[in-house]
Amino acid sequence: MVEDTRHSWGWAPTCAVVLLCGVLGATSADVFASRQAPFVCPASATLVGDAPPIGFRQWCVVRDAAGKLIADGPMQEWHADGWLKLTGRFERGMREGLWVELDARGARILEATYRADVREGPYAGQAEDGSRYEGRFKQGQRDGLWRTFDAEGKKVSEGTMKGKVREGPWKVWLEDGLVADGNYKADQREGRWTISSAGVKRGEGMYTGNVRHGAWTDFDERGQVSAKGLFKDDQRHGRWTLYFADGSKQAEGAYETHAKDGPWVEWTSPGKERRRWEGAYQHGAKGGVWTHFHEDGKVLATGLLEASRMHGAWVHNDETGKLVARGDYELGVRVGRWMESGTSGGYFEGDYQRGERHGLWVAFSSNGERQGELRYANGTRLDPEVAPR
Predict the structure, then answer these.
(1) What phi, psi does 294 have (nearest 5°)?
(2) Pick from 69, 72, 32, 75: nearest CA to 50
(3) CA distance 251 to 243
């Protein structure tokens, strides 16, 4: 039996054969004229075993110098249903030349070339999930270019093998049409790797010990920089800058184990003069005091956030810096006593209940004189509106 090494080289093989794909996967009916291929032993050899339905293995034997029986010549093995399972040839007890293994459906799943019982030359195989792999052996070790394909024949990876490990340049086809290029060292990604899609660069950075570690840059679908910063043990860690499509900054701050943490600045739109938010993240969520700035530096709003939602006291100003509203939020909803400015310079004071005006609201003039009263029920006004002056 041919030794099955389909899962012995570092990862589950996912490939279809290129060098031998013309025959690998073909049914035994295509390759052999019948369930029993012609079987003729050399003149000096004796046939041993039986073909179906009596037996399931045949081979040829001769006696060596010591009188011991050894395999010499062709051999065949069959599945229980009589379909061919394995075919190959021995020379003086050692595998020689091409050996082929077929599954129960008659499809070739393994091809190996031997020289003096050692793998030498082309090698191709198929895993149980239908994925395939191909390459070459040299003196019993994988050597040179190897390729892997999925069950549909799409290329998954190709690169250099040295024995059981990937060593040197490799290309890996990822999901969503992405392709990764870089180097392996002792079967681990090492050094600079590039990720691209349809020829457009989508990511570039450093690997150490098979994980992203060091400077990394992400690119959008046009190849423009969308983010750059540092990775540590395959997680964003340290200073990062995010960018809009026009190249202007979208956000800037620090990550801690792949979550935003500490002070951040976030711009609301692209361009040179634009508004921004400043505050801090706590393990990926906004918390503490956040402030919204106009492009000229005036404060538009400031207050407390909890779990990225307004929670606690807030002050809102217009673009001139004039106060327009002040009060408390509870997880993003206005609650309790609020002051809100009117359209003619005056202001209103009253209560919010679950985000809606509720109860008595009083209108004041710009100099603080009481102007009138309004009554609300869950956001619905119950009497004519009074406009403060």
Answers:
(1) -70, 160
(2) 75
(3) 7
Cβ atoms of residues 335 and 354 within 8 Å:
yes
Per residue in 221-261, pLDDT (tens digit) is 999 999 999 999 999 999 999 999 999 999 999 999 999 99
**So what's the pLDDT on residue 23?**
39
Tell me the pLDDT tens digit for each residue of 380-389.
999 776 666 5
pLDDT score at 17: 30
Instruction: Name residue 137's beta-bridge partners.
Output: 121, 142
Cα angle: 350, vertex 355, 359; to 5 degrees:
35
3-state helix, strand and coil shares in percent for the chain, rounded to the nearest 5:
0, 60, 40
**Are the CB atoms for 213 and 235 separated by under 8 Å?**
no
Handedness of CA 3, 99, 41, 67 (dihedral sign): negative
Tell me: cis bond preceding 53? Omega within 30 of 0 counts.
yes
DSSP-assigned letter for residue 30:
H
Q: Name the amino acid, one letter, at 102.
A: L
pTM of this structure:
0.74
Angle at 266 between CA 260 and CA 269, to 5 degrees: 140
Q: Give the single-character DSSP code of 29.
A: H
Q: Enumerate the β-bridge partners of residue 195.
A: 180, 203
Assign residue 81 a region: left if phi > 0, alpha if psi is -120 to 50, beta otherwise? alpha
Q: If you search the block for the tokens 């270019």, which residue do you land on? A: 145
Q: Are 18 and 134 in contact (CB under 8 A)?
A: yes
Query: Which stretches of the chain score pLDDT less than 70?
Result: 1-38, 385-389
Is there a contact between 353 and 360 (Cβ–Cβ < 8 Å)?
A: no
Q: Which residues contact 76 (CB under 8 A, 6 or more apart)?
A: 36, 37, 39, 51, 57, 58, 59, 84, 86, 87
